[in-house]
Amino acid sequence: MKVKLFFTVIFILIVVHSFAQILITGKLLTEDQKPIANVTVSYKKIGSAALLGFSKSDGGGTFKLTVKVTDVDSVQLDFNHLSYAKRSVHVVNASANYAYILKGEVRKIQEVKVADVPVYNRKDTINYDVASFTGKQDRVIADIIKKLPGIEMRGGQILYQGEPIQQYRVNGLDMMGGRYGLINQNLPAEAVLKVQILENHQPIKMLDKLVFSNRATLNLQLKKFTTTGTGKIGLGATPALWDANITPMSFAKTFQTLNSFQTNNVGDDVSQQLKPFYSGTGYFAARSRFSDGPSYLSIREVATPGFDQKKWLDNQIFLVSSNMIQKLKNGLEVKGNFSYFHDNRKRQGTTMTQYFTSDEVISNQEVVDNSYGVDELNIGVFVEKNESNVYFNNSTNYRKRWNNSVGNILFNENTPIHQDKNFSDEAFLNSFSLGRFIGKQLVNVTSKIEWHNTPQRLSVNPGQFESLINVGKPYDRMGQIVRFKSFNFENGLSLSRKIKRWTFSPSVNLNYNNSKLNSHIEVQDQDDIRVLDTGYFNDMNNEQLQLRLALQIGKEVRKFRYSFNLPFSQYYYNVKQQGIQRMKNEFRSSWNPSASVSYVLNGKNSIGTNLSGGRNFGGLDNFYNGYIISQYRSIQKYDVRLLKNEDLSTGIHYEYKNTLKANFANLGYHYTKSWRDYMFSTVLDSLGRSTTSINNQDAQSLHQGIRGGLSKFFIGVKTIAKLNGSLNWRVSDYLLNEALVKQHVNSQSFTFELINSSSSMISGDYRVSMGRTHNQLAGGLSNELLYNNHFFNLVFAPHDRHLITMSNSLYGNNVKAQKSQYFMDATYRFRLTHWRTDLELTGTNLLNNKNYLQQFSSDYELVQSYFELRPRQFLISMRFKI
After folding, report:
1. How far apart are CA 184 and CA 871, in angstroms?
2. Is residue 631's pLDDT more than 80?
3. N or C end of the chain: which has fewer CB within 10 A?
4. What 3-state DSSP class applies to 272?
5. Alpha carbon distance 31, 765 (integer Å)
6. Averaged confidence pLDDT in the chain
């Protein structure tokens, strides 16, 4: 049914495109019968203010106007020229030729300063004037960006019209390569003149007129080339608190640098500022972001609250980062980055879990007291040349992550359990891409090498799964040791050529992957330590070779854009497990075509649709038939075989923008259906401990959803309104205690936000976030989760040097044992104008809320978790601009 909908939309768009159009022609003359050039000729429905199309008269005074309106008998033509009087006429809505005389008249136009307009559009660039959106409480550019109509920020990620941006630039240079949080959270807002959105931006200059893009790039235009940055030093209680941040940055014409030192224990996870939100630079750039080495082991945790992290995160973090970019005279850009952070975290709470099977409900309680030591080191060097005749980039990166986690659990009020986990992931990545024109043929070569070494260990005391691994007898300790290594080598060659309006891009890739997994289980009873034998250890070596052939086709004609991608892959597998050849020279093939069409109705409206489908094979990381204890309550093993997934996906998306009135809107629908030739089968024991394996049984899942957003800037009252919402439906199959269960999940979410700064003395913002999730569980049971959260911030500025901010938040849900929780924070700021420094006194959690109860569900679980919050605290700090 959904496929028919897709093809119906495609048919309608093509019919609209090819429909016979009405052509009105004519000639414009002066009173003495001389032709008039450069007259703007537009048309609209009679009595309507909406302009539907326009053209201009040529040197001979003639004009041609294509009329696409078919539901009226007559239309209005308007003639405009600064040297002649305006004239409007009504004509029959049919192809015809006319002649009109315009009377001479010199008209004055009122001077308009672009800088005074909050939002305006030039070609494909939307400009936001930062000063128009800045309030007295705003300090860094992130405070401004999250207000802008048409733009959202979700967890630090920036989206335009509901889609993530593809690049974040400052004065045209992308120094951070996706890790733009460091700039966003530390660049003073007063240093920025404009925030620009480059729509349909093609970041690779060679492809600018060859391959169209529907992605957006964000650029910050600074007021001048400058050295700037932010600094903060703060001390407080209770408990003893500190918060320090020194982040200088420099932006010259061809050189930029940013260095940051940050440390705090106030609940601010500044490591999120290093999170990459994109990698590579576009169409044929090789991937330059690390994949994650698999983590097979974990300690049992208590779920964290789904609200402001600073209210509950108990950590002590230290971060240092150094970044630079230099643009050389020959067009080369050289980037370097170094970052390291260490974070000690504590997490305490209580989890009550109900496991729903078709036969019974299993309940247990866990009192959790965990601590974590998290470290990460990143070093990278990037060289790029991006010119109209050549594209070259090479990225070399090294990363190491390691952490030590300790967990103490009191199980069902009488059984203490101790967990100890060690994990590290060391990785190296080199990514290379070169593009050149040979005649009119664009040739691109890519290559990538990636290596991972990921050892990990989990120890649990006392030992668990007695009946499975110790013949039913209690024992002191169980230990799981895992060593994982992988090597990837990917190479590609692609060609691109434009023939009339069509762009053809065939490509071939040869990719090799090798991974090794070794694991074993130790059992200790008093001083006796033994390693379990067959069925409890893994010695796996798998190899995969992929030959991928693809043809991408694109066409851009008038207001239509067509894109087709036709990839075919041939896979070759070899797998050894415990020294036995489980798969030998096995071949599989996949075919994953996709297509999209977009249509620009006019300068304000556009619509697009897409369709994709195909087959994929996976599961190589699960190719082990010896047990692995992933958590003290979970153990699994999988039979060696390839897992097949087939899917069909389609969607439609609409966008509206009126930059003159600062109105933005988007609406989208997506539909995905998947088929699998396997199911994960879970068996629960009487204590809720799970054993997972793969069952050779077909399964299906269906997911469909609607999302949309509206935003508007009411210029007269300096108020921004934003509305976002989503509806989702999902159905999937799973096996629990050998019974087939269909899970049905329906969810709805809604967010509304108002930001007002009409008064110089009082300003504020209000946001409400509401949602519902209904989950049908096994045995005919169901669960409904509701949340209703409100946020109100009020800013008083009684004097230029004094600022008081009151932050209020109310969190509500339908958990009977949890009343709605109200939080209040306050900040007093005193401005030392001569030193350009702020003195701040901040009080958080003034009502001293102790804990928070939340509820959530999964395939067969209903979980309630009590989480301990940060206590009431006060911080005195000095914040300054560097």
Report:
1. 29
2. yes
3. N
4. helix
5. 59
6. 88
The Cα–Cα gap between 477 and 530 comes to: 11
CA atoms within 13 A on the CB side of 219: 17
How far apart CA 653 and CA 607 sit, in angstroms, is: 6
In sequence order, what are the residues at sequence separation of 6 or more whose Cβ sits closer than 8 angstroms to the Cβ of residue 85? 102, 103, 104, 105
Residue 160 has a pLDDT of 95
For residue 566 the two structure tokens come to 């036709």
Q: Which residues contact 223 (CB under 8 A, 6 or more apart)?
A: 191, 192, 193
What H or E segment, with its residue span, contains residue 375?
A: strand 361-386
Return the CA Rg of the chain: 31
CA distances from 445 to 278, 437, 494, 685 (A): 21, 12, 7, 54
CA distances for 371 relative to 271, 301, 353, 463, angstroms: 18, 10, 22, 21
Please state the φ and ψ torsions of residue 275, each to the nearest 5 degrees. -70, 125
- The pLDDT of residue 345: 95
Q: Is the pLDDT of residue 506 over 50?
A: yes
Write phi, then psi, for 110 (nearest 5 degrees): -70, 135
583, containing H or E segment: strand 580-591
Q: pTM value?
A: 0.82
Q: How far apart are CA 341 and CA 355, in angstroms?
A: 38
Tokens of 436: 């050149």
Parallel, antiparallel or unpaired: strands 634-636 and 690-695? parallel
Nearest-angstrom CA–CA distance, 359 and 357: 5
What's the whole-number mean pLDDT along residues 95-110?
Answer: 76
Give 297's DSSP letter: -
Q: What is the sign, positive or negative, of the torsion defined by CA atoms of 39, 41, 46, 48?
A: negative
- How many angstroms separate the CA atoms of 34 and 57, rounded? 13
Question: What is the phi/psi pair of residue 205, to 5°?
Answer: -60, -35
- Render pLDDT for 235-244 as a digit per residue (tens, 0 to 9): 998 889 999 9
327 contacts 254 by C-beta, under 8 angstroms? yes
Residue linked to tokens 């932006």: 251
Which candidate, 377, 294, 333, places its Cα nearest to that of 174?
Answer: 333
Residue 571 parent element (H or E) = strand 560-577
Q: Which residues contact 281 (CB under 8 A, 6 or more apart)?
A: 167, 174, 203, 204, 384, 386, 393
Residue pointed to by tokens 């990459």: 276
**Which sign, positive or negative, has the C-alpha torsion 142, 143, 148, 150?**
positive
d(CA 594, CA 567): 9
What are the structure tokens assigned to 179, written together?
């890790």
Taking residue 224's Cβ as centre, other Cβ atoms within 10 Å add up to: 9
Query: CB of 3 within 8 A of CB of 650?
Result: yes
**For strand 663-676 and strand 643-658, is the pairing parallel, antiparallel, or unpaired?**
antiparallel
Mean pLDDT lowest among 300-309, 394-403, 522-531, 603-612? 300-309
What is the helix (H) or strand (E) element at residue 24, kind and residue range?
Answer: strand 22-29
Q: Beta strand 96-101 with 22-29: parallel, antiparallel or unpaired? A: parallel
Residue 833 DSSP code:
T
Phi-psi region of 103 (alpha: psi -120 to 50; beta: other; left: phi over 0): beta
DSSP assignment of 783-833? EEEEEEEEEEEEEEEEETTEEEEEEEEEEEES-TT---EEEEEEEEEEEET
**243, 232 Cβ separation under 8 angstroms:** yes
Q: How far is CA 452 from CA 285, 297, 518, in A?
A: 22, 17, 14
State which amino acid sits at residue 167.
Answer: Q
CA-CA distances (angstroms) from residue 495 to 321, 361, 442, 447?
Answer: 39, 59, 6, 15
Distance CA 807, CA 17 (A): 53
Distance CA 477, CA 863 (A): 27
Question: Using CA atoms, how far apart are residues 845 and 852, in angstroms rounded to an integer?
Answer: 13
